[in-house]
Specification:
about 800 residues, alpha/beta, 5-stranded parallel sheet, 27 helices, elongated
C-alpha cells in the first residue's frame, strides 16, 4: 500500500479557529447612536419560569433560581417583578399593602398583639396615640385641680370626718360613764381609769384591793369590745369614702376623657381590633388615674400589679405607645427586598432588651422587624449560600413558609439557652413570594434530601451560562455595552470595540456560535478597557483598548503559567518539540486557578512487554489518578481487546505514565494520547514529538470531545513559539471540538502563515496517521490489516507475542 499520508485532509484553516466579529454588523459608529437596552438578553427559559412563578398565587410556588454567578440573575428577577407589578396595575388589580404595628396586650403584657392597618395608617395611628397621651396628661390633672371637683371631694371628706368625730365622741362619753378616760395614741386607743375625775396614778392602782382591780379590768375589757366594734364601723366608713372618691374620680375623669376616645373610636370604627384596644385603653386610664395626677400624688401611689415591671423602667405610659413595626408609608407598590446578609435577626427580626438594676427588660416597643417582615405582601430575594451559613435560618424560613406566619422569636431559645424575660409577640401572617438564588448542585441535593423543599419551592428557574448567537442577541449586546457606559460613566465604545467585546464573550464559553451570559465579567472588561483608553487620552474605546484590557488581565494572573513555561524551556520539565520517539507522545492538560486557566504539555510514555497483566496505569498504582482517568485507561484496554484480540489472546502488558507528574491526574482527555503511545510501543513505530494531542476515546476507537481545548492548544503553541516555530508543529484535537475553538489571534495568525497547524480527528486511526506519517490500515476480512500499516505492525507484534508465550509454555512443560 502507499506509505504516504496526506495530512492536509486533517488540517483546519485559520477561519475555523476563531470567530471574528465583523464591525460592519453594527449600523452605528458609536454606541451613543443607539438606544439603551430594555429587558434582558436571551434566557427565554428562565424568564418564562419567573413569569410562571410570579403569576402562580398559590402556596408553595416560591422560586429557586440556578445558574452561573455574575450572569445578572438577581437583576433579571428584580426587573421581571417590577414589570409584573406594573402589568397588574395596568389591568386594574389593586395590591393590599399593610402597615404592621405591635401594641400593648392588657390581658397578657408578655404577649404583645399585632395589628394590620392600611399602608400609611400605622404611623398616623402611632401619632394619634401620642397625641391622646399628651391630651390626657394635660386634661386629667386640670380636671382634678378644678374647684368643682375639689368641692365635691371635700363634701365627701367632711361627711366622713363628721361621722368619724361622732363615733369618737360617743366612745369618750361611754368611757366616762364607766369611769375611764378614752385617748387615741400612735399605738392605738387606750383606756385610763379615773379617780374623782382624774386619771388614776400607779400608786393609787397598786393600793387597790384585788376585788377592785378585777372589777376595773372587767369594765375595761367590756369597753374595749365596744371600741373595737366602733373602729370596725370607722374602717367601713373609710372604705366607703375611698370607694366614693374613686367613683367620683372615675366619673369626673370619664367625662373629661370621653371626647378624646370618642373621636378615635369614630375614626377607627371599621377596625374591630383597634376599637377593642381603645376600649381597653380607656378602661386602663380610668383604672389607673393616679399615673396622670400631679407628680406628688403619682409618686405616693402604688402602681398596679400588671405594670410593676414597666414601672421599674420608669415608663408607666407604656400601653399608650404603639410600635410601628413595619412602615410602608413611603411605598406605593409591593415591596421588593434583597437580603444580602440573612442571619436570624436580619431576616426574622429581634427582641431588644434594656438593662436596669442588673436585670434585662423588654416590651413591645423594642420589637424590631426583619427583612421577611418588610417584604410581607411583596417579594424577598435571598442567596442560598448565605442562608445555610447562618445557623437555624434555613429551618426557620421553611417553618415560616409552611405555617404561613412569621414568629418573632429569640434565636437563643433554639439552642436551649436561658433567655431573660422572653416575650411572645403575636405572629404576623406571611404572604410573601420568596426567591432563592443558588447553585444547581444545591438544588439537586435539596430535592433529594430535604423533604420540605419540593413542597415549598415548586418553581425552578434555570439561567444558562451561554446564549445562542444570532443577530438579535448581537445587537442587544451592543445596547448592553451602552448601558454599562451610562451606568459606570465610561467613554463610549465604537463598533470595533463592541465587536472585540463580543469576541471576548464568545471566548468565555469556548464556542464560536455562543456568547457568555456572565454579564458581570463582561462589565469588568468594559470598565478596564475604559481605563486603558483614558491612559491614551482617547475619546472613544476601540478594539485595541479592549484587547489591551484582556491582555493585561491575563498578565496579572499568569505568573504560575509563565513559571512552568520557563521550567520547560530550561529542560527542568522534559518536553520534546521535534524528532521522533517510540512510545512517547505530548499530551495536554489544563490547570484551572479559579480566575485563570491555562494549558501545558505533559510527556506521556508507554512501555510494553510480554505478559498478561494488561494495561497498568502507573498514576493509579501510585494513587495519583482520579476516577475518570482510571476509567479512561480501562477504556483503552477495552479498545485494544476490541481492535486486536478478536482471533487471538492479548498476551501483552503495558505501563503508562505521566512523566514528571507529582500531583493528581484527573479526566479522560489523555486517553487518545495514551492509546497512541501504547500502539507506538507495540509496533515500534516512532511518534512525532512536534505534535501534541488531546482527546478521549470510547471502546470503538472513536474520538470524543474534551474540555479546555483552547487553553491546551495555546499552551503547546507558546512552548513551540519560545523554541522557534518550524512550520511542522501542531496540535491534534477531536473533530467535535472544532465549534469550541476561539483561539488567541496570535495562534490564528501562525496557522494562517503555515507556522503552526491544528489537526482534527474522529478516530484513533486518524491520529496515528498524523503522528506516524504511515497509513493506519483498514482491517481485512480475515481479521488482519493492510500490510505496511501501523495496525498491521501492531497486529503482527501481538501475534508474535502469542507464539513466543506458547513456545515458552511448551518449554516449561518439557522441563517438568
Amino acid at each position: 500500500m502507499d506509505g504516504k499520508v496526506d495530512l492536509t485532509q486533517y488540517r483546519l484553516s485559520a477561519k475555523d479557529l476563531r470567530w471574528f466579529c465583523d464591525p460592519n454588523l453594527f449600523p452605528f459608529q458609536c454606541v451613543d447612536e443607539i438606544a439603551s437596552l430594555e429587558g434582558f438578553i436571551g434566557q427565554e427559559r428562565a424568564l418564562s419560569s419567573i413569569d410562571f412563578g410570579l403569576q402562580m398565587n398559590r402556596t408553595g410556588y416560591n422560586l429557586f433560581v440556578t445558574g452561573p454567578s455574575r450572569s445578572g440573575r438577581v437583576s433579571a428577577i428584580h426587573q421581571r417583578i417590577k414589570e409584573f407589578i406594573k402589568q397588574k396595575k395596568e389591568e386594574g388589580e389593586a395590591f393590599e399593602i399593610h402597615d404592621w404595628c405591635y401594641h400593648f396586650n392588657f390581658d397578657s403584657p408578655d404577649q404583645p398583639k399585632v395589628l394590620a392597618l392600611p399602608r400609611g395608617k400605622g404611623k398616623v395611628f402611632s401619632q394619634k396615640m401620642e397625641k391622646l397621651l399628651k391630651d390626657l396628661r394635660d386634661v386629667i390633672p386640670k380636671t382634678f385641680a378644678s374647684d368643682d371637683y375639689k368641692n365635691q371631694r371635700q363634701i365627701l371628706l367632711d361627711e366622713h370626718q363628721r361621722q368619724h368625730r361622732a363615733i369618737i365622741q360617743q366612745l369618750e362619753r361611754r368611757a366616762l360613764e364607766e369611769g375611764f378616760a378614752f385617748r387615741m395614741t400612735s399605738m392605738g386607743p387606750i383606756l385610763v381609769p379615773l379617780v374623782q375625775g382624774k386619771p388614776m396614778t400607779q400608786e393609787q392602782y397598786l393600793a387597790l384591793s384585788d376585788e377592785e382591780k378585777e372589777k376595773i379590768e372587767q369594765t375595761r375589757q367590756k369597753l374595749l369590745q365596744e371600741i373595737n366594734q366602733a373602729f370596725e364601723v370607722i374602717h367601713r366608713l373609710e372604705a366607703e369614702l375611698k370607694n366614693r372618691i374613686a367613683e367620683l374620680d372615675k366619673k369626673v375623669a370619664e367625662f373629661a376623657i370621653s371626647p378624646f376616645f370618642r373621636e378615635l373610636l369614630q375614626d377607627y370604627a371599621d377596625f374591630p381590633e383597634v376599637v377593642d384596644f381603645l376600649q381597653k385603653l380607656k378602661d386602663f386610664t380610668l383604672s389607673y388615674l393616679h399615673i396622670f395626677r400631679d407628680s406628688q400624688e403619682s409618686a405616693s401611689a402604688s402602681p398596679p400589679p400588671a405594670l410593676v415591671s414597666y414601672q421599674r423602667l420608669q415608663d408607666p405610659f407604656l400601653p399608650f405607645k404603639v410600635n410601628v413595626f413595619v412602615d410602608n408609608s413611603s411605598i406605593e407598590d409591593p415591596p421588593i427586598v434583597v437580603e444580602t446578609h440573612p442571619n436570624w435577626n436580619n431576616l426574622f427580626g429581634k427582641i431588644e432588651r434594656k438593662a436596669f438594676m442588673g436585670a434585662y427588660f423588654s416590651d413591645h416597643t423594642m420589637l424590631k422587624a426583619g427583612s421577611l417582615h418588610r417584604a410581607n405582601g411583596g417579594y424577598i430575594i435571598l442567596y442560598f449560600r448565605d442562608l445555610i451559613t447562618n445557623p437555624g435560618v434555613w429551618d426557620g424560613l421553611k417553618r415560616a413558609l409552611k405555617n404561613q406566619e412569621i414568629k418573632l422569636e429569640d434565636p437563643f431559645e433554639h439552642y436551649g439557652l436561658i433567655v431573660p424575660q422572653g416575650l411572645r409577640p403575636d405572629p404576623l401572617p406571611l404572604q410573601t413570594k420568596v426567591v432563592i438564588v443558588g447553585e444547581e448542585n444545591f438544588y439537586q441535593l435539596l430535592t433529594l434530601f430535604d423533604d420540605d423543599f419540593p413542597d415549598l419551592f415548586k418553581v425552578k428557574v434555570e439561567f444558562d451560562y451561554q446564549l445562542n448567537k444570532d443577530d438579535q442577541v448581537i445587537q442587544s449586546f451592543a445596547c448592553f455595552v451602552k448601558n454599562c457606559c451610562q451606568e459606570n460613566s465610561l467613554l463610549a465604545f465604537d463598533r470595533t470595540g463592541v465587536a472585540k467585546t463580543l469576541e471576548y464573550a464568545s471566548r468565555l464559553v469556548s464556542h464560536k456560535k455562543k456568547l457568555s451570559s456572565r454579564f458581570g465579567l463582561i462589565r469588568d472588561l468594559l470598565v478596564e478597557a475604559d481605563y486603558w483608553a483614558r491612559q491614551e487620552n482617547a475619546s472613544l474605546i476601540n478594539s485595541s483598548h479592549v484587547k489591551k484590557a484582556v491582555d493585561e488581565k491575563i498578565k496579572r494572573t499568569s505568573l504560575i503559567r509563565d513559571r512552568i513555561e520557563e521550567l520547560i524551556q530550561e529542560d527542568v520539565f522534559l518536553i520534546d518539540t521535534d524528532g521522533l520517539v517510540t512510545g512517547q507522545v505530548n499530551g495536554l492538560a489544563v490547570y484551572d486557578l479559579g480566575d485563570f486557566s491555562f494549558g501545558r504539555p505533559s510527556r506521556i510514555t508507554a512501555r510494553t512487554f510480554l505478559g498478561k497483566q494488561g494495561v497498568v496505569n502507573i498514576e493509579r498504582e501510585s494513587k495519583l489518578s482520579g476516577k475518570i482517568h482510571d476509567k479512561g485507561v480501562l477504556i483503552l484496554g477495552g479498545y485494544l481487546g476490541y481492535r486486536y484480540a478478536q482471533n487471538k489472546p492479548l498476551s501483552i502488558s503495558a505501563s503508562i505514565c505521566f512523566e514528571q507528574s507529582y500531583q493528581g491526574v484527573e479526566g479522560d482527555s489523555a486517553s487518545l494520547a495514551e492509546t497512541c503511545a501504547v500502539l507506538s510501543s507495540i509496533s515500534g513505530v516512532p511518534l512525532r514529538q512536534d505534535i501534541a494531542i488531546t482527546g478521549s476515546i470510547n471502546q470503538k476507537g472513536e474520538v470524543q470531545a474534551i474540555g479546555g481545548v483552547n487553553q491546551k492548544i495555546e499552551g503547546f503553541f507558546r512552548v513551540c513559539q519560545a523554541r522557534g516555530l518550524t512550520g511542522k508543529q501542531g496540535v491534534i484535537i477531536p473533530s467535535s471540538n472544532v465549534p469550541n475553538l476561539m483561539l488567541e489571534e496570535e495562534v490564528v495568525k501562525a496557522v494562517e502563515t503555515g507556522e503552526f497547524h491544528i489537526y482534527q480527528v474522529s478516530s484513533v486511526d486518524q491520529a496515528l496517521e498524523i503522528l506516524t506519517g504511515l497509513p493506519a490500515g483498514a482491517q481485512l476480512e480475515d481479521g488482519t490489516f493492510e500490510p505496511g500499516s501501523v495496525n498491521y505492525l501492531v497486529d503482527t507484534k501481538l501475534r508474535e507475542t502469542v507464539d513466543l508465550l506458547k513456545q515458552l509454555g511448551e518449554k516449561g512443560e518439557g522441563n517438568n
